Amino acid sequence: MTKFSVLDLALVKAGGTVADAFRASLDLARHAEAWGYTRFWLAEHHNMGGIASAATSVLIGYVAGGTSMLRVGSGGIMLPNHSSLVIAEHFGTLESLYPGRIDLGVGRAPGSDGLTARALRRGLGNEDDFPRQVQELLAYLGPRVPGQRVRAVPGEGTNVPVWLLGSSTYSAQLAARLGLRFAFASHFAPEQMQEALSIYRQEFRSSEGLQTPYAMIGVPVVAADTDEQARRLATTPYQRFLHLIRGEPIYTEPPVESMDRLWSAEERAVVESKLGAAIIGSPETVKRKLVALAQASQADEFIFTSDLYHHPDRLRSYEIVAEVMSGKTPSAETYVPIHETSPSFGK
User: Which of 147, 256, 282, 331 would suit a FRET pair with 321, their CA atoms being 20 to 30 Å apart?
Assistant: First the structure.
């Protein structure tokens, strides 16, 4: 059975607060754990109104502390923004607090605009240095070697699983060469997915941490009890991508009956292209499309994004996906907070 996971950005709703976003992320993680999801990842972004996961390792600790079995990690840390030593220390700390539950996914994009990248003390030409940074990170997380003077404390010897994230064949080649797990960002860049997966598998070299290739793909999903309801809910991620390509803040907006008056024909084409891998529909539709995607991609794992405005709608979407992936018959709609302290997000 293909494993399944959650990718979260701590989305801030229009009219909502960052604190609301954090509480919603934790509530989603608790439900995901109960529904059998494998991991819950958070992604680093900066200076983006509507995304609150900038301090990614801090938020990972918050979610890991509020769950008990779920793997929690980064999808990803944008490594050129940071010192490899500092990231090894951060994730060594997390692994020490929550042993056996932490993942470290890294990417080479800035996760921001050029001006913000400079504010992060990130050189704009650092992508060429990325392979060295990854190897340095792996060394800090591995066992100490004779003569090593700089150590990650904590971090050394934790061997936190490192994943390479990407939306291109470059990332696939590097992950294969280093023998790392590979996650492809088909949730916003589906065009090169098949080529990247093929390159990764063909060129993979076994490593001490991974003997055979392991590939995960991002899948945007909007699941609801009917196709009609799902199509309406999907106008929320459509609006987010529309704001993104316009260079506007991407606060999560309520669904609308029609997008026709909100975008031009050219904008619609771009948004639908970026969300080309999206699976939208009822449980039956979602099942049919996920079976087809599993056969076409041969992915070892799916990591789902379901960026909806109303928290119960978002939970229901992930619940349907979990039931479909587990081979269960989707149940009637339910929403029960996992803990008494879980907030109600019915607004």
Answer: 256
